[in-house]
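Why do we bother with holo predictions? Because pocket geometry can differ from the apo form. Keep that in mind while you read this record for adenosine-5'-triphosphate.
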Amino acid sequence: MLDFAGNPCFSVAIVIHQNTRQKFACLDIKFPLNKTLPPMAEPKVNDLMERIVSLCKRRGFVFQSSEIYGGINGFWDYGPLGAELKRNVKDYWWRSMTQRRDDVAGLEATIIMHPQIWEASGHTSTFADPMVDCLLTKKRFRADQIDPQSGVVYHYSGAEGGGKKSEEPFSVILVPGKNPESARKVAKQFYQQRGIADAVLMGERTEKVENSTRYNSENGSLLTEPRLFNLMFKTYVGPVESAENVAYLRPETAQAIFAQFKNVMEVSRQKVPFGICQSGKAFRNEINPRNFTFRSREFEQMELEFFIRPDEAVEAICGGVAKPAGASHPGHPQPNWGWEMWHKYWVEERLAFYESIGLPRASLVEYWQKPEELAHYARATVDILYKFPFSKRNEAGELTGEELEGVAARSDFDLSQHQRFSGKAMTVFDEELKVAWGKLDEAKRNDLANRYYETRLKYLTKVGEPADKAEKQARENAQELGKGYYVPHVIEPSAGVDRLALALICNAYCEDQAPDEKGNMEGRVVMRFHPRIAPVKVAVFPLLKNKPELVKKALEVRDLLRPHMTVFYDEGGAIGRRYRRQDEAGTPFGVTIDFDTLGEQGAELKDTVTLRDRDTMKQTRIKISELLPRLLERIQ
Ligand code: ATP
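The structure, written out:
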């Protein structure tokens, strides 16, 4: 196993959940295999992720943070290729979510914000994970991520030895097939740690248990009772470390969007429905960072808050509320869309986004959270999962996937909370609603106002407002609706940059065979990134570096392409080796300047180059003047 100091459970995770069959079944070998060469060894079931991690380090996608000091658990740096990959992901997300839409505006807010933001959002009180510790090793786990175990539990009331006695109870689980002595050994270690040398165990009794999550699956030791642990990183603003100067590194980028909602709406002259998006750093003091960069303590998010009318307003204006009719994309947004249509729309838009950067639909899972899994304010949440090699498998042996993004219909909870805590109105005025309301008959008005009153009352009661205050407030809100005022509801697609980068790396990783200098087949690692997000778009090679005419022409081609894309110029080593280096970096195109380019084999070939496709390894001759449009078409 690779030694990634500070990330001890990574190796465990990949041993348990590894799959290579699926990945390597799709090998695309374009060249005939040299019969004398043994086929490339099928990677062992457990080492695909290990190979990917190794490539990430070797080629400079990801490094351990502070590596020269032994690393720091849960923090990762991106090397030259990783930095480009991440930048491409964020830029493409920004372009598709904001620049290519009329109805979304961007924001870039600070990481440290007024601490009351986190009171209003609920993070101070509820952004916590249950944590347990192993009583033997003190290793810490998230209680909800403990694998259930069945077996016989050995309970002890204490131990004595060397003139000392401990009456602290301890238990160990013994899974089927293991010798009871191993349970006793673990118990003795526990008491030895409490100063009892040569411990003689006391009061042994056994108990059968099924699917218990009270024991450490690594050594069988009892775990502590779960305790809640707030994941926010705390700091102090200013020189005095006092309670009133406490601030937090943001655990998500979304809250700044809510806090700046009014400002952005005003300056961008948007009207509901519209969205605000932001990408940037977020920090969570995760109990158990693991699976490489998947669960980190510092990471980046890409979040959109899309503000919509409450359904009662849509019904008043349009006479009805459209509901999703099937499983497919609901099409271009319409005025009669309620929250369900908008939610479905964003789920489909986001799935299409992932496909557009090369994640096949079959590698993604659309997981609809069950009612009991939903946050109390959420009406529906779809998690978009990617089938990572370390994902767990279901009973049918299929990878179940891990979350890349959550698309949540969050009602009007967030803005309402900031309205309550800041005392600033988060309502919008909707002229169309006011006009439409005036034309409704009384029965319809009462019906809509009553429904709106009920949902507002439910929210206000849930957040702890006293009954009389909640009723009064909800009644006022229902009256305001009739005048065209409401707090917008929100659909939130919230994605992680680092998880997506890791998914793209896992998805791109391929091993196949390619011919070496002499035409013999050899194994190659190729990163099949979609050209849109590939770190380097094109490599430019003069065939020989000691021919000044070739080098001069190659530099001209490099300078022609460089203003438009990332270009890597490489003149060192045999051309096959140079191709191989770019295959590993995932560079989709290679341009070679040879003697034909100089017109030495005929005037008709002058100023043509070979364009090599990374995936097919096919080379085509193309005029230099056609190179830029051809490449731009593929990378945009
Ligand atoms: P999880 O259940 O995996 O902890 P979450 O549901 O708490 O994730 P959200 O709060 O919905 O995550 O955050 C939105 C996105 O931010 C996630 O879908 C994920 O892509 C990313 N993200 C959240 N926590 C982390 C983390 N510790 N490391 C890397 N990315 C993260």
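The mean pLDDT is 90.
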